[in-house]
Amino acid sequence: MKIAVIGGGISGVSAAFWLSKSLKELKKDYEITLFEKNEKLGGSIDTVTKGDFTVEAGPNGFLDSKPYTLKLVDDAGLSDKLYKSNDLARKRYIMRYGRLIRLPEKPPQFFKTDLLTLKGKLRVIAEYFVPQKILEDETVADFARRRLGSEACDYLISPMVSGIFAGDPEKMSLRACFPVIYELEVKFGGLFKGMLKKREKKSGPAGPGGVLTSYSGGLINLINDVAKKFENVTIKTNAAVKSIFKENEKFRICYGDDSISFDVVILTCPAYEAEKIIRPLSEKLAVNFGKIPYAPAFVVGLGFDEKDIKDSLDGFGYLIPAKENRKILGALFTSSIFPERVKNDKRLIRVIMGGDRNRWILEKSNEELIDIAYNEIKDTLKITGKPVSNVCFRWEYAIPQYYIGHLKIAESVEQISSEIGNFYVGGNILYGVGINDCTKRSFDIVEKIIQNIK
Ligand SMILES: Cc1cc2nc3c(=O)[nH]c(=O)nc-3n(C[C@H](O)[C@H](O)[C@H](O)COP(=O)(O)OP(=O)(O)OC[C@H]3O[C@@H](n4cnc5c(N)ncnc54)[C@H](O)[C@@H]3O)c2cc1C
User: Mutation test of ligand 1: which of 46, 83, 269 has the most ligand atoms closer than 8 Å to its C-beta?
Assistant: First the structure.
């Protein structure tokens, strides 16, 4: 059996790994080909080491509260390379009135915090009494205002949406982006009611929870080390798939000046690429992929001498609500989260810019972005000297946006894929953008393929 995996990010790599492992265990005859457009694997994951600084270009890590990325690393026999964040990373800050205020984690902190006014806090508590309303789809902002009030929407929920999706809560679908939160209202009548029930049942946390986890030397090593464990997988880099069509019950995949036939296809490339290559196979599928927009997110890494930062950087970093009218989405204190990422007592801060609401960044040069990033964090973090190192990563199509109606797109993609048969859409375009969501999707797809074979 010949299987094609299109896209060499974490989704494609995890799919190829689990598939090769399962087929080998079943003693099946198989050949897997992994097509990657770029010269190396990783997709949104890349790690760059420059002098004393090791900087992640994309994701920082993943939470250990969901199982699939941990399982991937474990199945590959690489668990000893996992790297947990410093305990400091539990402390997260939100900016309000230009100041950094610690995000409350427990009820006593919530009552004391300046993050919300007394009126705002009482409105959050009143969530318990807000009547249940089951809507098929609702924006994250409408949901937050309805259940928690507008202040909590602006200062708690909106930063969370920009932190995960670089998204605009006025457009994002609650059900598609945060299904666990949606379920709390549907199953239990509200957020507090749901969280209390979950606590009673000890059915695990309602929120994200977990410890931020990375990999020794950076996430790109996770990708490369897992790929080294592939068996019977041909990795084709610099091999952008141009089109897929059906020919004699098989899929013909065209790349470069060549083409190969396959029995099964797993697609994990971004929606805007999938739209182009899938058209000869299914116009309807292409139309669906074309409906998924992307937000830009640029990452500026700034390295400092310890003496030049007066702030203790004791925490994960901070997010900035749109209401604060700043030019960045937030900043991560990388050298506090993962001390291994710097040498010689240096400090590393990753500034995140852009998002769905700030497309003006696309016009700026790297030098301008580095200047903006520095000027935005300078006073907040009491920085007295210039960065000794800087780097800018431009992700113009960083993260797919699950707008209202996204689940209809997902449903339609599933239906068309099953009509095509032996064709699977993975990646981050349907059911979650976190690394854990991507690995879960790949695991589920591999399970389906194996079931079909059995
Ligand atoms: C700046 C940033 C920060 C993030 N932070 C976090 C975080 O801290 N934690 C977290 O969990 N998630 C984070 N994410 C999200 C997460 O990194 C991504 O959702 C995830 O890595 C996507 O993996 P993927 O394999 O599905 O897609 P991608 O990584 O996009 O991989 C798709 C691959 O397909 C290839 N491709 C494209 N077209 C073709 C073609 N025609 N033929 C062949 N190959 C093709 C691409 O080159 C790419 O390598 C972040 C994302 C970004 C951009």
Answer: 269
